[in-house]
Structure formats: structure tokens, C-alpha cells
Amino acid sequence: MRKIKLFLVVACVAMLAACNTKPAETEKEMKYENETIETIMERRSIRKYKPETVARETLEKIMECGINAPNGQNKQSWEVRVVDNPEVMAEINAVIAEAYGEKAEMAVGCFRGAPVMVFIARDLAYDFSAYDCGLLAENIMLSAQSLGVGSICLGSPVRIINDNEACAPVLERLGFSEGYEFCLCVG
After folding, report:
1. What are the pLDDT digits (tens) for 48-86?
2. What is the edge-to-edge ordering of all strands in the sheet holding 78-83?
3. 117 contacts 152 by C-beta, under 8 angstroms
């Protein structure tokens, strides 16, 4: 009887050892099942940026991923303006500063110093356009993360620009079509 028990214990240990023939996984491999999940789990909102530009081909790839976001009836019910020119951002900031007077510092800081700003407008004629714009923004942020570029989704520039008539030149500069409303910013 003792030999049988010993045999069973040895057999169980051998089976357990055989089940674990895979080499030990690194902490990262154990933490995430694949690269997509890794990108999602590691993305964070960046609130301070280095004064470096994003390479044109990287920016184009990020935007290509953005516009391939799922959207209702494939309407692509958005308009997008990408500003990566520091002079244009300075002009936008100057208009905002003038419009907000003593509160200018808070208002101008809404872009967090991002070297690239993506302005997104929604189609007012399509009920689900705001959702589509959110999906677009999410694709932009996730693809940016996967390419080593930090990002943040911002709502405050929308309020700052849309809610102050003195900021109308910013919207004119962005040139959204009639029937489209500025609704989201990604930096």
C-alpha cells in the first residue's frame, strides 16, 4: 500500500512537471496576452510634452489608423484638422489669450504644450457623429501609443473655443465645413 501511495505521489508530481514544459514567461508576457492589450493597458494621458515634433510618416500612420475607426454606416461623419506647425499653434493661442484676458494663462494652457494638435468636428446632421468622433480619437490615441507617441484627449479646448465669440477666428482658421461643430481635441 505504501508503494502505491508513493507511486501515485511521484506520478502526480511528474504530470504536473510535464504540464509546465513551457519556459518561464517574463513578467510582461504574463501580464498581457498580446500587443493590442498591451497597448491599451499601457496608454496614459500625457499632460506635459517634450518640445519635439512627431515625424511626418509617424503622424500620417497615426491619422490613417484614426480614420479607419469603426463608424456608423461608414459615414465617416467627422472632419479632422491636424496642426503641427508651432507658428499656427502660437496664432491660435494668441487669439485665445486675447479672448480670455486675465484668465488667458488657464485658457492657453489647455493644449498642454503638445507639439501636434488634432482638432475634430462632428457632423450635426448625423445623430451618431459624436460617437464616431470618439472612436476616431481612440484609434488615434491607441495607434500613437503603439508607435511610442504620447497623447491626451482634451475637452477643455472645445469649451474654451466654442463658448467664447472672441475665439471665432480659431474656428475660421481651422476651416470646418458648415454643419460641422468642433467637438474634440487630441494632443
Report:
1. 777 788 999 999 999 999 999 999 999 999 999 999 999
2. 78-83, 117-123, 180-186, 153-154
3. no
Distance CA 99, CA 162 (A): 12
Chain length of the chain: 187
Q: How far is CA 85 from CA 42, 77, 130, in A?
A: 28, 25, 27
Q: In a 3-state reduction of DSSP, which class is residue 23?
A: coil
- Cell matching residue 186: 487630441
C-alpha 167/C-alpha 182 separation (Å) is: 12
Closest CA to 117 of 99, 135, 95, 90: 90
Q: How buried is 124 (Cβ within 10 angstroms: 0-12 exposed, 13-18 middle, 19+ buried)?
A: middle
Q: Burial of 151 by CB count in 10 Å (0-12 exposed, 13-18 middle, 19+ buried)?
A: buried
SS3 124: coil
Q: What DSSP state is assigned to residue 148?
A: T
Query: What are the pLDDT digits (tens) for 133-165?
Result: 999 999 999 999 999 999 999 998 999 999 999
Alpha-helical (H) ranges within the chain are: 2-19, 27-31, 35-42, 56-67, 86-100, 104-108, 129-146, 156-162, 168-174
Which conformational region is residue 74 in: left (phi greater than 0), alpha (psi within -120 to 50 degrees), or beta? Answer: left
